[in-house]
UniProtKB/TrEMBL annotation:
It holds the Pfam family ATP-synt_A. This is ATP synthase subunit a. Belongs to the ATPase A chain family. Keywords: ATP synthesis, CF(0), Hydrogen ion transport, Ion transport, Membrane, Mitochondrion, Mitochondrion inner membrane, Transmembrane, Transmembrane helix, Transport. Signal peptide: none annotated. It is a multi-pass membrane protein. CDD domains: ATP-synt_Fo_a_6. The keyword Signal does not apply. The keyword Cell inner membrane does not apply. The chain crosses the membrane at residues 12-31, 69-89, 101-118, 138-156, 163-183, 189-219. Gene3D superfamilies: ATP synthase, F0 complex, subunit A. The gene is ATPase6.
Length: 227
């Protein structure tokens, strides 16, 4: 039984072909292509309004130099939100429960911020390794600590997204299994448990959106954040 709980996180295969590629490609198919007309339909209008709100919220703490990251960060956030939300549907697979996929997102973006920061603002980038006013005896220790902290940031981003989504899916499956087991024996308790399951599902919808937002948001505060 315990092994079957984790089977939902294994990439499904069909005729030996991993279906994770379809799960990753599907979100882009769901969004309509923006039109060049002055007057669009309601769906494209709402989509454009939401994307503008997302962009304004993400770019608000950054100066004008950081706004060139807007397209990449907003696209990544919408992509992660769509994948996380589709993963809550029955008989679906959530690619973001795979640490390898999340690290594939985190490492290149983290490496890009470090390389561009070292190229454009080397003094500012290196200044993050040593806080101002540090006592001289603590300088070597703090440089080592800040360097280690810099290198584990992509791992922390990937593990945070993977752990939150995995825990939520496991909890939903455990409570759903409890509802089916209790239904013939204790219907009242089963109904109460089903109510808890419904509320947990609503919470997981919020978590799916918040975790995608947090994943992208933390990239903006990697040193230097306004490159």
């Amino acid at each position: 039984m315990m092994v079957s709980f984790f089977d939902q996180f294994a990439s499904p295969l069909y005729l030996g072909i991993p279906l994770i590629a379809i799960a990753i490609t599907l979100p882009w198919v769901l969004y309509p292509t923006p039109s060049s007309r002055w007057i669009n339909n309601r769906l494209i209008t709402v989509q454009g309004w939401l994307i503008n709100r997302f962009t304004n919220q993400l770019m608000l703490p950054l100066n004008m130099g950081g706004h060139k990251w807007a397209l990449l960060l907003v696209s990544l956030m919408i992509f992660l939100i769509t994948i996380n939300m589709l993963g809550l549907l029955p008989y679906t697979f959530t690619p973001t429960t795979q640490l390898s996929l999340n690290m594939g997102f985190a490492v290149p973006l983290w490496l890009a911020t470090v390389i561009i920061g070292m190229r454009n603002q080397p003094t500012v980038a290196l200044g993050h390794l040593l806080p101002e006013g540090t006592p001289i005896p603590l300088i070597p220790v703090l440089i080592i600590i800040e360097t280690i902290s810099l290198f584990i940031r992509p791992l922390a981003l990937g593990v945070r997204l993977t752990a939150n989504l995995t825990a939520g899916h496991l909890l939903i499956q455990l409570i759903a299994t409890a509802v089916f087991v209790l239904l013939p024996m204790m219907p009242t308790v089963a109904i109460l448990t089903a109510t808890v399951l419904f509320l947990l599902t609503l919470l997981e919808v919020a978590v799916a959106m918040i975790q995608a937002y947090v994943f992208v948001l933390l990239f903006k505060f990697m040193p230097p954040e306004n490159v």
